């Protein structure tokens, strides 16, 4: 009789609790893998590298080549601050990722909220933590600096981003879940060309494929 009760209890637990990697009521969460085929780690330096779309670039031996990089840059003529997130030639600048609970979870998962910070020194007063803002000059929602690490909630909702799986690559996404009462307008993080020729990282219609390259590679 006891064994029968235990069996029913076990079946109930399996039916009512999600398996590891599956979010309740949401998309599946998987470990993010970098270009060295290792799991993405919180606090470690990475380059965010857009995936080349040119058909002339052939990948014969993984990891496949990557394109330009993400960096900080002033996009306002004759001003050095604030700094916005842009795509530039070369590797770009290193970033770190911080999940909602960095003390208990050091690995980065897809479809989970995280902060992104450029691990560089800046002469501007704003922090180098990513933040989504409405840009009056372009009419776009762009990624700039001045966010904060942690403190999930209503006041920091624009500081949280996600990584989504995209075939064998990834894309960045804005759809924070850190505030249950907030209703953020979700969107893909892509590239928008402004009137000054800057490749601004912003909300776009189409996903923008990226990979994560360890700085030590």
Automatic annotation (TrEMBL):
It comes from the Eukaryota. Keywords: Signal. The keyword Signal applies. Residues 1-25 form the signal peptide. GO terms for molecular function: endopeptidase inhibitor activity. InterPro entries: Kunitz_inhibitor_STI-like_sf (IPR011065), Prot_inh_Kunz-lg (IPR002160). Pfam families: Kunitz_legume. The keyword Signal applies. PANTHER family: KUNITZ TRYPSIN INHIBITOR 2, LIPID TRANSFER PROTEIN. This is Miraculin. It comes from Arachis duranensis (Wild peanut). The gene is LOC107489921.
């Amino acid at each position: 009789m006891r064994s029968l009760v235990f069996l029913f209890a076990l079946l109930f637990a399996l039916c009512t609790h999600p398996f590891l990697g599956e979010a309740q009521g949401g998309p599946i969460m998987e470990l993010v893998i970098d270009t060295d085929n290792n799991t993405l780690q919180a606090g470690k330096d990475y380059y965010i590298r857009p995936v080349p779309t040119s058909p002339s670039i052939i990948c014969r031996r993984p990891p496949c080549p990557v394109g330009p990089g993400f960096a900080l840059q002033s996009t306002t003529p004759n001003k050095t601050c604030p700094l916005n997130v842009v795509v530039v030639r070369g590797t770009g600048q290193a970033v770190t990722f911080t999940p909602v609970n960095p003390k208990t979870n050091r690995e980065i998962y897809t479809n989970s909220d995280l902060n992104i910070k450029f691990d560089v020194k800046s002469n501007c007063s704003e922090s180098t933590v990513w933040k989504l803002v409405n840009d009056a000059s372009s009419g776009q929602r762009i990624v700039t600096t001045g966010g904060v690490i942690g403190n999930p909630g209503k006041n920091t909702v624009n500081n949280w981003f996600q990584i989504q799986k995209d075939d064998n690559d990834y894309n960045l996404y804005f759809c924070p879940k850190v505030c249950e009462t907030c209703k953020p307008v979700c969107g893909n993080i892509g590239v928008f060309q402004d009137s000054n020729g800057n490749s601004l990282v912003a909300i776009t219609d189409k996903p923008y494929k990226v990979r994560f390259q360890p700085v030590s590679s």
